[in-house]
Amino acid sequence: MTTTAETRQSIEASGAPPRSRVYAQLAVAYSFPGTSFYAGVKDGLMSTELSAALTRLPYRLRISDLSWRAPSTYDEMQTEYIRLFQVGGRQGPPCSLHAGHHTGDRIRTLQNLIRFYDYFGFRVVECVMPDHFPVQLEFMSELSADRSLDPASIRRAQADFLRTHLAWAEGLARLLAGGSPHPFYRSLTLLTGRFIAADRRFISQAIGGGQHAEQ
Q1: What CA–CA distances, in Å, run from 163 to 86, 196, 197, 199, 200?
Q2: Nearest 5°: phi and psi at 96?
Q3: For residues 79-111, b (16+ Cβ closer than 10 Å) or e, as one string?
Q4: What does the pLDDT look like over 175-201, one tens digit per residue?
Q5: Cα 89–171–76 angle (5° rounding)?
């Protein structure tokens, strides 16, 4: 398991479906930014690739309000990521990217995630916590691309993971708002919350045989 640009490249090379691509691209976006990621944001490649995957989703998702203006320098992006997601002020970052900090029982969250990952053969690299948001996004990317199991079983697994482990992320923009984030991260969190909420409803309705409308 990786949470770098290699994830996005491998998913795209495999011909993965759009939902899988979006999750993979978001996993990269929420990982600590490298120079290649910053370059992709700066020259518009990141927003172009993400928009292309979003427009191919099996449901309609509003993306017209997105702003992808990059921080002025790579150092500014690094500093902003650290401030918003890792260190912050005396009370910590405005929005930790570890799910256990939002569930009220991190030990139980970690245990449940490990069981989920183990069941599907998903391995987390050493020194990376299982509840780190990019790890969860990458897991959903792989799960939504998995064609080895019965489609109904895969849909139920995705619905369970979204409901149990990613519901907190639907409020990312609200959690981050108090930190006065750079427009790039504000737009990213707004899109992420909207996407996860819409994807959860899509999977739930797919299990029930319903139709999904624009979000």
Answers
A1: 25, 10, 10, 11, 7
A2: -65, 145
A3: ebbebbbeeeeeeebbbbbbbbebbeeeeebbe
A4: 998 899 999 999 999 999 999 999 999
A5: 45
Structure tokens at 138: 């990458």
Q: Residue 206 has which token pair?
A: 């797919």
Residue reference for tokens 């708002």: 177
Mind listing the pLDDT tens digit for each residue in 90-119?
777 889 999 999 988 999 999 999 999 999
Output the CA–CA distances (angstroms, integers) from residue 33 to 5, 83, 89, 180, in the order listed. 10, 13, 20, 19
Q: How far is CA 47 from CA 20, 42, 95, 123, in A?
A: 16, 10, 23, 29
Name the CATH superfamily, with its identifier, for domain 5-208: TorD-like (1.10.3480.10)
Structure tokens at 141: 């990317």
